[in-house]
Amino acid sequence: MEKKVYKSVVIGTGPAGYTAAIYLARANLNPLVIEGPQPGGQLTTTTDVENFPGFPDGIMGPELMENMRKQAERFGTTFVTGWVTEIDTSQRPFKLTGEGLEEIWAETLIISTGASAKYLNIPGEQDNVGKGVSACATCDGFFFRGKKIVVIGGGDSAMEEANFLTRFASELTIVHRRDELRASKIMQDRARENEKISWALNRTPLEVLATGMGVTGLKVRNNETGAEEVIETDGLFVAIGHKPNTDFLRGKVELNEHGYVIVKPGTTETSVPGIFAAGDVQDMKYRQAITAAGSGCQAALDCEKFLEGSMVHDWSTTLG
Questions:
Q1: Contacts of 171 by beta carbon, 8 Å cutoff, 6+ apart
Q2: Which residue ranges does the record assign to the FAD/NAD(P)-binding domain (predicted)?
Q3: Predicted structure pTM score
Q4: Does residue 140 have an active-site annotation?
């Protein structure tokens, strides 16, 4: 049975995957995009997006992602829904298998599976994501101008997000389950010198409190006394890190100690020729929709250039 080999396959959607697909499709490469369990990525759980260029009045996250998907589809992108669990990178074309998928063969791959924000998994948290609970200060801080904010975390990311959020908040409380912070001294010092920041250390978050109007507070337990207390707040920012969605890539392409795909500086090239990475899956620093879209463009252009330099081969003869 003859097997079809795609010139390029994009694994994952969101701004990076959709942008890569748009560029590949416009180059007549007829890409296949494999959508995972959350097509559109993290922006599908975001309400107003006000920092993506071209939308002066803002746009809803799901609508932005749907528009990108339609644009990719318009130029000839094919979409399938499934979950890639295995990639054979030992030779080209690469073979992909997974849940809900038949065998897929690809001359090139673009990995854009993103990174998932870590949450606390306490009552009330997931019910209020996008309704007062967030994991992205630069995305959502503006909506809490003049309001009370709680930041949960004790590392550099939490300190950085807290300092950023004081531009908007009337007051801000950092909650951490230990009495010592993991953040570097310089980041701790910056936070402690900020007059808007107060501290609730050695507190374990128990529950996010909310009404139909939004988040109203965070119930915590004092680890010294065991007493429960409520910290009043209008917004809750969880800053305990991100986890790149790369478990299926271990042993296949080079990852850093945190699990992010390592790319050659200035490119989207991974350790395997013909495999590229775009978006949050390789970005520990910025993690913005616009930077993800930009790297999706880069990955498509890198992919196109790679294919131009590859030997033309009728793979169906080999794979039939």
A1: 148, 149, 196, 198
A2: 7-296
A3: 0.78
A4: yes
